[in-house]
Structure formats: C-alpha cells, structure tokens
Amino acid sequence: MTIIDGKLTAKNLREKLAIEVAEMKSEYGVQPSLTVVMVGDDPASQVYVKNKVQQTQAIGMISSEINMPANCSQSVLLDQIKALNHDSSVHGILVQLPLPHHIDESAVIAAIDPNKDVDGFHAINSGRLFNGDLGAMVPCTPQGCVLLIKQHLGGDLSGKHVVVIGRSNIVGKPVAMLLLQENCTVTITHSRTRNLPEVCRQADIVVAAVGIAEFVKADWIKEGATVIDVGINRVITHDGKYKLVGDVDYQAVIEGCGAITPVPGGVGPMTIACLLKNTLLAAQATISKRSV
Ligand SMILES: NC(=O)C1=CN([C@@H]2O[C@H](COP(=O)(O)OP(=O)(O)OC[C@H]3O[C@@H](n4cnc5c(N)ncnc54)[C@H](OP(=O)(O)O)[C@@H]3O)[C@@H](O)[C@H]2O)C=CC1
Ligand SMILES: Nc1nc(=O)c2c([nH]1)NC[C@@H]1CN(c3ccc(C(=O)N[C@@H](CCC(=O)O)C(=O)O)cc3)C=[N+]21
Ligand SMILES: [Mg+2]
C-alpha cells in the first residue's frame, strides 16, 4: 500500500515552476502575476487563499488579493473583473467560490477573460477540454488528480476503469474528461446513482469528490485499487478542535487499497501547484503574442 504524497509532488512541481518564472523574468522582464478576488470571509476559503498567496510569492510570482464585502453587489464585482481583464499586469484571475447567494456564479465566471481564467471554469475553457483541444486552461484540482494518478501508476492509464464520485463543474466533470483523454474507461456517479458501492468495486481507480466526510467505505474498494480523495471536510473532533478529513474512510480503506491520497497532504497541495502552473501558462501566452 502506497500513500501518495501530494505535498511532496506539489513541492517538486513548484520548484520546476520557480525556475521557469526566473527565466521568464530574466529573458522577457515579465513576472507572472495572479489576482485572487474574494467576496465575504468564508473561513475555509481564507485558509486556501492564505496558502495560495504564500506559495505564489515563494516561486517568484506576484500575488494580489482583492477583498470585497459579503454584501457587495454583482455589478460591482463584474466591474472589478472587467478592470482586471483590461489590466495587462494581471495574467491570472481567480474568483474564490462559493460566492454569496445573491451573486450569480455563472455570470461571474463568464465575465473573466478566458485567457486569464486560471481556474479553467469559463465555458470557453471547459468547451476546449470537452473537445480535447490543447490550449485549454485545465481546472486545477482535476489536473492535480491526474498528475498524482499518472505518477503512481507509471504514466499509461489506457483501459483503466475509473469511477468518479461527483459531477460538479469544478471537479467531477472535468476530472472525468481528463481521464477519458488518458484512455480510461470512465464512469461518472452522483447522488442518483444506484448501487454505488457495487459500481465502485469495479474500479481500478476511484476519484471521490462528494463533499461528505468519510463517505467511501472500505468494502467499496477493489483490492489494490488507487484511491484519490478530493474531499476537504472540516469536522470537529471529540476534544472540540477542527480537523480536515476527506471523502474517504481513510483508516479503513488503507488496509486493502493499492494506493491512496491522504487529507491533508494529497490533492489539496496539488491544486495550488497547478494554479501556479496555469498562471505561468497565462503569462507565457502574453509573451508569445507579443513576439509575433
Ligand atoms: N482538494 C481540493 O483542492 C478541492 C477539494 N474540494 C472538495 O471536494 C469535494 C467535492 O467538491 P465539489 O465538487 O465542489 O462538490 P459539490 O457539492 O459541487 O458536488 C458534490 C457531488 O457529489 C454528489 N453527491 C452528493 N451526495 C452523494 C451521494 N450520497 N452519493 C453519490 N454522490 C453524491 C453530488 O451529486 P448530485 O450532482 O446528484 O447532487 C455532486 O455531484 C468537497 O469536499 C470539496 O471541499 C473541492 C475543490 C478543490
Ligand atoms: N475559484 C476557486 N477555485 C478553487 O480551486 C477553489 C475554490 N474556488 N474554492 C474552494 C476550493 C477548495 N480548494 C482547495 C485548495 C487547496 C487546498 C489545500 O491546500 N489543502 C491542504 C491543506 C489545507 C489546510 O491545512 O487547511 C491539504 O489538503 O493538504 C484546499 C482546498 C480550492 N478551491
Ligand atoms: Mg459546488
């Protein structure tokens, strides 16, 4: 049984990115920059934003954060995004989700310049991914999942049966598309799926993106299967502290699976590393435009 070390893999990826950032600065005088827009003060989002700001700067990129009050209107937020779209010193824009209920998330995502959409959530980018076009900005968490799977299984995923649990636009659907592109046989499951344990037992690889703490049980996992736990759930322990747990019943599943990503230290750090990679790609695209 292997515990897939996402923290280490993410650190190695960030080190490679740092070299490319330094080269970009010295050869073109361009420093990749990422702006995160946060509306309101969701505590879980704050942790993510804090990690992201620190890691962006650590690899030599510019990080800025725009905090807007929870009661800010949709039109004020859309104007802010338009200003960032027109600001050539900003290469990547990330609007932290979820947004307050009075704001239409899809309208906000649609307002982001697809070339600066480092989350890969804009319909132009999800369409490119769906069509198998190179040049899509690929959503960070799905990208991180696939990197961890390929690293563990040695690159070629042809013919592997993957069961994805969850069909959100930010994790389930895009991770399924990426794995299809890797020639996997992909089953997408969700809350209306019948006999989910039975379906999961067919899988060589299970990707759990459900949002329910310790939802996936040991007897759902075929012996030797690879388990990717995307879930980030904050639960209160018996001594009243918060801890993070995934969507997989980790302590039970480690007994029989072939490999598993821990929470924390699995997919989460890869999400941030892939965000930095997308920011570098967005900055590189502005240079190739300039030189022709
Ligand atoms: N590690 C990271 O970097 C990231 C982690 N996350 C975490 O990943 C998890 C999933 O996130 P996200 O995709 O945004 O979540 P959503 O809530 O948007 O989607 C959850 C999905 O799980 C399905 N589901 C819910 N209950 C069941 C059930 N009983 N049986 C089967 N399927 C079920 C839902 O089905 P239906 O569509 O039918 O409602 C839905 O498709 C969360 O814990 C989140 O915090 C998210 C982003 C990044
Ligand atoms: N526009 C947008 N894009 C996102 O990608 C996005 C978002 N909104 N909203 C929230 C979710 C969640 N998410 C996480 C990323 C990293 C960690 C992460 O770094 N986790 C660490 C530890 C964190 C800790 O210790 O609290 C780990 O799992 O080891 C967690 C969660 C990105 N999301
Ligand atoms: Mg959601």
UniProtKB/TrEMBL annotation:
Transmembrane helix recorded as keyword: no
UniProt pathway: One-carbon metabolism; tetrahydrofolate interconversion
Superkingdom assignment: Bacteria
Domain Tetrahydrofolate dehydrogenase/cyclohydrolase NAD(P)-binding: 139-285
Binding site for NADP(+): G166, R167, S168, I232
GO cellular component: cytosol
Organism listed in the record: Colwellia chukchiensis
Any GO MF annotation of the entry: methenyltetrahydrofolate cyclohydrolase activity
Listed GO biological process terms: L-histidine biosynthetic process; methionine biosynthetic process; purine nucleotide biosynthetic process; tetrahydrofolate interconversion
HAMAP family: THF_DHG_CYH (MF_01576)
Gene3D superfamilies for this protein: Leucine Dehydrogenase, chain A, domain 1 (3.40.50.10860), NAD(P)-binding Rossmann-like Domain (3.40.50.720)
Assembly and binders: Homodimer.
Taxon lineage: Bacteria, Pseudomonadati, Pseudomonadota, Gammaproteobacteria, Alteromonadales
Reaction catalysis annotation: (6R)-5,10-methylene-5,6,7,8-tetrahydrofolate + NADP(+) = (6R)-5,10-methenyltetrahydrofolate + NADPH; (6R)-5,10-methenyltetrahydrofolate + H2O = (6R)-10-formyltetrahydrofolate + H(+)
Protein name: Bifunctional protein FolD
Matching InterPro entries: Aminoacid_DH-like_N_sf, NAD(P)-bd_dom_sf, THF_DH/CycHdrlase, THF_DH/CycHdrlase_cat_dom, THF_DH/CycHdrlase_CS, THF_DH/CycHdrlase_NAD-bd_dom
UniProt family annotation: Belongs to the tetrahydrofolate dehydrogenase/cyclohydrolase family.
Keyword Transferase: no
Span of domain Tetrahydrofolate dehydrogenase/cyclohydrolase catalytic: 4-119
Annotated EC: 1.5.1.5, 3.5.4.9
Role played: Catalyzes the oxidation of 5,10-methylenetetrahydrofolate to 5,10-methenyltetrahydrofolate and then the hydrolysis of 5,10-methenyltetrahydrofolate to 10-formyltetrahydrofolate.
Swiss-Prot/TrEMBL keywords: Amino-acid biosynthesis, Histidine biosynthesis, Hydrolase, Methionine biosynthesis, Multifunctional enzyme, NADP, One-carbon metabolism, Oxidoreductase, Purine biosynthesis
